[in-house]
Amino acid sequence: MAEDEHRDKHRQRVLKGATILTGVTNSEVKCMVRNMHAEGAELKVSPDARVPDEFLLYVPVDGIAYKAVVRWRRENRIGVMFTGTEPKPSWHYG
Prior knowledge:
This is PilZ domain-containing protein. It comes from Mesorhizobium metallidurans STM 2683. It holds the Pfam family PilZ. By secondary structure, the chain is mostly beta strands. The protein is built from no helices and six strands. The chain has one domain: Thrombin, subunit H, CATH 2.40.10. A six-stranded antiparallel beta barrel has the order 1-2-3-6-5-4. A hairpin with a 2-residue loop joins strand 5 and strand 6. The N terminus is likely disordered.
């Protein structure tokens, strides 16, 4: 069953560079936002990326750090639900 079938909201296709900020020793993982809605997004990450179940997703073009919780994982894709926003951490260079 495709994840599209589980959505109650349509996600807009986008292609935005973003950074997963884990807070663990100020760790960062680069990713691409493939589609997005106010309540969540699909991310494309490197196949060997270590992404925790909860993190901040900083999207520079939006100027927002989204609090994200992983809902599903498939190969190099991750579906997340947004639980809020917060200011970009001061330790992040971007």
